[in-house]
């Protein structure tokens, strides 16, 4: 278990370096300084912190309101982020057009949601949330704020929510190179490697023809959330700023062999779509 937690840290760290490199220079090779903490990246890129597996990191703590929900019933979910001084944080950095990104995944890696809560002046965040079925859900709060020295800190803090009832976990679909969503086919090229940054390209097709007119959604041609089976370690990766040969290109390194679920969100003709892939990282 300890090894897995260390690995989750490494995953976030490597990605942060990579997104920093691609966003600042447009170059393919990740060469950013190891200590860089880009505002652009997510995943808990602070040494000693873990991405999406903890209530607290870097001196900041997620304090949720009620975390028990009735299946299929909309209910406000509220939370605050307490800073190192113990007070609610009210200063956040606009990151991909939002101050707070909120992601929900059921423990079996199903029932994905990506929402954007609103903050009251006292630092209380609220989002209407419907959890569709009995089970345990991971609620990720993904944001960038400032540490006491004024440095930007990207963090992903998370808590479990429960929906009482008969939980019927859905087996993870087998690994696949294509996914179909809303009549579109999305292909995945590239394979994440353990501790080695690899390109991942996603291409969208309609009736066998490449879709070239993808639109920016929250400032990027695609958003990729990657969740590890077993501990729900979390990554939110942004692609290179421009399409590469018509594909949305990400750089990803995996912390361990095993299975991951990838959630790829993209926009076309004003509609947001989500393609999901199971990815098996070889040992
Ligand atoms: Cu978001």
TrEMBL record:
<protein>
    <recommendedName>
        <fullName>Secreted protein</fullName>
    </recommendedName>
</protein>
């Amino acid at each position: 278990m300890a090894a897995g937690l260390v690995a989750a840290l490494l995953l976030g760290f490597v990605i942060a370096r990579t997104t920093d490199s691609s966003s600042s220079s447009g170059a393919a090779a990740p060469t950013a300084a190891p200590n860089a903490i880009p505002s652009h990246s997510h995943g808990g890129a602070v040494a000693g912190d873990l991405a999406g597996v903890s209530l607290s990191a870097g001196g900041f703590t997620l304090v949720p309101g009620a975390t028990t929900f009735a299946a299929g019933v909309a209910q406000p979910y509220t939370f605050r982020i307490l800073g190192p001084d113990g007070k609610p944080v009210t200063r956040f950095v606009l990151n991909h057009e939002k101050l707070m990104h909120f992601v929900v995944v059921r423990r079996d890696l199903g029932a994905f949601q990506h929402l954007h809560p609103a903050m009251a002046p006292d630092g209380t965040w609220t989002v209407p949330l419907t959890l569709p079925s009995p089970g345990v859900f991971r609620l990720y709060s993904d944001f960038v704020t400032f540490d006491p020295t004024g440095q930007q800190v990207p963090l992903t803090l998370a808590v479990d929510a429960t929906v009482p009832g008969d939980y019927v976990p859905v087996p993870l679909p087998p690994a696949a190179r294509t996914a179909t969503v809303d009549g579109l086919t999305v292909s995945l090229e590239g394979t994440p490697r353990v501790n080695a940054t690899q390109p991942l390209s996603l291409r969208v097709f309609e009736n066998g023809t490449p879709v070239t007119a993808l639109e920016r959604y929250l400032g990027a041609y695609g958003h990729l959330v990657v969740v590890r089976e077993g501990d729900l370690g979390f990554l939110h990766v942004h692609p290179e700023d421009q399409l590469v040969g018509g594909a949305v290109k990400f750089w990803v390194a995996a912390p361990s062999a095993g299975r991951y679920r990838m959630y790829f969100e993209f926009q076309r003709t004003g509609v947001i779509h989500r393609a999901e892939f199971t990815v098996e990282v070889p040992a």
